[in-house]
Amino acid sequence: MARPHIGICTAIERARWSYWDTEAYLLDRNYVDAVQAAGGIALMLPPDAEADPDEILDVLDGLILAGGADIDPATYGAELHAMTSGMRPERDAFEIALAGRALERDIPFLGICRGMQVMNVARGGTLRQHLPDDVGHQDHRRTPGSFDGADHDVRLADASLAARAAGELDHATKSHHHQGIAALGDGFVETGWSTLDELPEAIEDPERRFALGVQWHPEADPTSRLIAALVEEAARRPASASGAAP
Question: In terms of pTM, does the model score above 0.70?
Answer without folding.
Answer: yes
